[in-house]
Design a protein that fits this description.
4 domains, 8-stranded antiparallel beta sheet, Immunoglobulin-like, Jelly Rolls, mainly beta, 5-stranded antiparallel beta sheet, single chain, 1% helix, rod-shaped, 1 helix
């Protein structure tokens, strides 16, 4: 782009069994399987987790650190029998104040003895199973050797603060009341993001987002000299994005109680929407450029000078802290002046900073409408220092208009303001003889000529750009006044016929 002055989340649970976190999703819950009596130790990030407990139909059997359970129903065993007899394990998640929950994935390690239940169904409920739960996982033929199962939770989304999700693990198919079903610990490692876990070997782990995460990879790509595309990578959680822009550093930092889901936004800078019009106490100099779930926004009709500062927020219940960047706008010249001297015109200009500035093309016009190039002056590439430039035009005109065309290395251009010069010397002289009156223009200049008779009636009105003659033979006898308007000056010449 041209030289410039530098001017929310689908909630995902994804366990990473490596030493690094591979995306922006966050481990938010762990359930400890090492429990001896009822509810076990559990912990979460942005949520409160209750540990494993048993339905009234089953009992505990001691077996090391695993959460072993026995007394599973054997007669007419089926899912409906398991539900009737309360043959299940259970844990719950409570969403903390200021958070919003959206789940993606849960990992659980299940095992059984040779006579334990070999069929499993996992359901969830948001009303503590006062009505039927929703199935999220089922299988038959559970092996006797423990294995980690990955269970998708993406259907559980946008759970508000103070809400509770309860999970039940039903099991059936035991051939002996002494057969066991247990939740074992992971044999692989896991990684937490944003919190320090205390459970060393859990039996259930859940990933996702319960607190705001900032978008990443916030960049901009110039499209034209007055538009740019702001891009970002959504977190793998909620993706309710808000982009706020200004010509000065962003100060907006909304609290979680501010809900922008119905805010107006406009990517057209000519029709920008102020933050103050959308949020009480917001800045009138900061603007809501985008509200949505996308990953980019093209801002158009940007001003020709300054720096666009912008901040990309991720909003769900509370807001992320925001990712702040700025993008260069087209050339801002500190000044551009044209001074007419006796024998030449001196052009001078300064820049505060430059970005990929290849060169300036000096352009000139006599009419102020059609500009032609007269010189090139090299730029300074990319720099944040002030630079001064000048050019001398020795082709002096009574009136001339100048501008600068700034060209980037990639061919992108922008233009300066227009400067005008007026030469001090008279641009007009008159001569006449018996047959004609001649207007002599000292140099090429757009002019207007009027001829009035002694009564003030207009005899002639014409535009001229060079010397011009009036044939007196076609005029009646009398006194005439010739008026020429040139270079904002008015010249009078009286003659007789």
């Amino acid at each position: 782009m041209s030289k410039t002055i530098r001017q929310f989340l689908v909630f995902s649970f994804f366990i990473v069994f490596t030493s690094e976190v591979s995306n922006a999703q966050s481990l938010i819950a762990l359930v400890d399987r090492a429990n001896a009596s009822g509810t076990t130790t559990a912990e979460g990030q942005g949520i409160t987790v209750t540990g494993l407990s048993r339905g009234a139909g089953i009992t505990h059997t001691s077996s090391g650190g695993d959460y072993n359970s026995t007394s599973w129903t054997t007669a007419n065993s089926s899912l409906s029998t398991a539900k009737t007899n309360n043959d299940y394990l259970q844990f719950s998640i409570l969403v903390n104040s200021g958070s919003l929950l959206d789940l993606n994935e849960m990992k659980i390690r299940m095992d059984r003895s040779g006579t334990g239940p070999n069929n499993v169904e996992i359901e969830y409920s948001t009303n503590a199973f006062s009505s039927a739960g929703t199935s999220i996982f089922s299988m038959t033929g559970l092996s006797k050797s423990g294995s980690i199962r990955t269970i998708g939770l993406s259907s559980i989304s946008n759970i508000n603060a103070s809400s509770t999700i309860t999970f039940r693990i039903y099991a059936w198919g035991a051939t002996s009341s002494g057969g066991t079903f247990d939740i074992e610990g992971f044999s692989n490692s896991y990684t937490a993001t944003g919190w320090t876990t205390t459970i060393s070997d859990p039996g259930i782990a859940i990933n996702g987002c319960a607190t705001p995460l900032n978008p990443t990879n916030i960049t901009n790509t110039p499209v034209t000299t007055n538009s740019t595309t702001i891009s970002w990578t959504n977190t793998s959680c909620f993706n309710n994005m808000v982009v706020i822009g200004s010509l000065s550093p962003i100060t907006t930092s909304p609290s979680f109680s501010v809900n922008p889901s119905t805010w107006s936004a406009n990517t057209d800078w000519n029709n920008k929407v102020s933050v103050s019009s959308q949020m009480s106490g917001g800045s009138s100099n900061e603007y809501v450029l985008y509200v949505g779930t996308g990953s980019s926004a093209t801002i158009s009709n940007l001003p020709a000078t300054g720096t666009l500062h912008y901040k990309v927020f991720n909003r769900f219940a509370s807001w992320s802290s925001g990712g702040t960047q700025n993008t260069p706008l087209p050339v801002e010249f500190i000044n551009f002046e044209a001074k007419s001297l006796n024998t030449h015109v001196l052009l001078s200009w300064s820049t505060a900073s430059e970005l990929n500035n290849h060169f300036f093309e000096v352009q000139k016009s006599i009419s102020g409408e059609r500009f032609t190039p007269v010189a090139e002056v090299s730029g300074n590439g990319t720099t944040t220092e002030t630079h001064h430039y000048n050019f001398t035009d020795t082709e002096v005109s009574p009136v001339a208009f100048y501008r600068l065309k700034q060209v980037d290395y990639d061919g992108t251009v922008s233009y300066s303001k227009i400067a005008r010069t007026i030469h001090e010397e008279d641009a007009i002289s008159f001569t006449q003889d018996k047959s004609e009156v001649t207007i002599n223009l000292e140099t090429f200049a757009p002019s207007q000529v009027l001829l009035l008779n002694s009564s003030g009636r207009e005899i002639l009105n014409d535009d001229i750009h060079s010397s011009y003659s009036i044939d007196k033979r076609f005029l009646a006898s009398g006194i005439y006044v010739l008026i020429v308007k040139c270079n904002d000056q008015i010249y009078h010449y009286r003659f007789y016929k």
